[in-house]
Amino acid sequence: MPMIETNNILSNPTGPEYQFLVGEGKFRDPGLYVLKEDLHLATPPPHPSEAPIVNPNPLSTAPQPATAGTRLTLLNLDVSPLSSALYRTTSQSEGARGSIPEHLDESQSSTDARESSSDVGRINSTEVPPFASNAPAFGEGNTLLAPVAQKDANKRRKPKNNMTKSNSSFISRVINHEALSKRLQERARDGLFAFANVNRAFQWLDMSSPLKAEYLTKILFTKAHCLCHDVNKVTKSSTHIDVVMGFSTGEIIWWEPTTQRYTRLNKNGIINGTPVSEIRWIPGSEHLFLAAHMDGTMVVYDKEKEDGIFTPEEESGPRTSGDTNGTGRVNYTSQIHVHKSVHSKNQKANPVAVWKLSNHRINAFAFSPDNRHLAVVSEDGTLRILDYLKEELLDLHYAYYGGLTCVCWSPDGKYVVTGGQDDLLSIWCPGEAARGGAALVARCQGHHSWVTSVAFDPWRCDERNYRFGSVGEDRRICLWDFSVGMLNRPRALAQQLEEKAHA
């Protein structure tokens, strides 16, 4: 049984056991990682109306309530969303080992001279990513998806209900810091906010404050567990933050923390009654977000629309742009079924779009840096690459064994990394499959249990060298470096290069 606390605990551990050295090799300079602060988030006790927690029989086949542990999102109001480009746009010559700064401010003076000669390229927060601007908006051409015009164009639409005064049985209690307004006014604008869901609790924290252990707001829900959440980077400001949360009941809450207002979507599971395993705002959108439900369905919601009773529209049939002539690259039974298209003329109420991908639980998904593709991993051990703008399945790949649990794209969009129940991390090159090559380029062994999350470090990546990190249920954090030169070139690409060499 988990330990139950009421307050967060902040500690500052010291000693060699709280630091480690990485990057001593051919491709990286040494780097010392030190644990500076350890913030333990309080695990909320069960609601009095909940049945007592019993130690479950691990051999029991009875379905258990959906849980997700702790998930965290950081937000900086003073920084534009990171452009979909590599920090370094030009690699150094072979044989030379370059130092890739940890962030924009590191070694600034030492790189000024090199920047002028394009040895080191940096994308400023105000620059437009080189390819993201070419991607059309999701649902472009469907005028029914346009948001309702506001009288004041600079004023954001707020949710309709007051969170602190809510009498909804869905919410048990809302606790605001006694000096909430003062803390928000006096905080540094470039400081980090943190949003965290822990079982039936959701916390809003100020990580730039000396009082970071004292939450700004803590919401306790009655029985529903918050499994996932996301913050809209497009609409963020000092007076407005859009947060969406997905719950074990299938319901979704759109919350605006600065005014403590909220709207409840998919109420009582009217659209889909299965738990929400992952939720993310659609890139570039102010009002549309995508939720993955545990029945293998992905649903696009509009935060400003009311819910409607959903019945699948005329079945468009499975959609794929892949081969179905026996090559095995795309399985007919695993294609995407569009139950409602984003281009549907019926857009008066939610949902905006509904896609059935699988009969198994969707564990995670990630948008590509060019805002055109979607990588989805499922409990059936599949990695699906979708063109979500066209609502088409492009590629289908399989884990070594077991389900895939997490996924992310490299900053340049060339690679996809997945983690799974096989304790492995797999590196994929989706574009190679389309050219007849091998999509799987490497499997990485290092974890002793299921991998729970994976992410690239954009400040440690260039055109040929990449770094990503992973965490698992073995309580390990692993940092991985790989180079294009280390990977076996797919056969199709090798043949193309050989033909060019002899041309």
Automatic annotation (TrEMBL):
Source species, domain of life: Eukaryota
Biased composition (Polar residues): 318-328
Disordered: annotated span: 40-66, 88-139, 149-168, 309-328
Keyword set includes Repeat: yes
Entry keyword annotation includes Repeat: yes
Pfam name, any one: WD40
Keywords carried by this UniProt record: Repeat, WD repeat
Transmembrane segments: none
Composition bias, Basic and acidic residues: 100-117
Gene Ontology CC terms, in alphabetical order: cell division site; cell tip; nucleus
Any one biological process term the GO annotation gives: carbon catabolite repression of transcription
WD repeats by residue range: 397-428
Assembly description: Interacts with creB.
Protein task: Component of the regulatory network controlling carbon source utilization through ubiquitination and deubiquitination involving creA, creB, creC, creD and acrB. Required to prevent the proteolysis of the CreB deubiquitinating enzyme in the absence of carbon catabolite repression. CreB deubiquitinating enzyme stabilized in a complex with the CreC leads to the expression of genes such as those in the proline and quinate pathways.
Family the UniProt entry places it in: Belongs to the WD repeat creC family.
Protein name per its UniProtKB record: Catabolite repression protein creC
Organism the protein comes from: Staphylotrichum longicolle
Lineage, highest ranks first: Eukaryota, Fungi, Dikarya, Ascomycota, Pezizomycotina
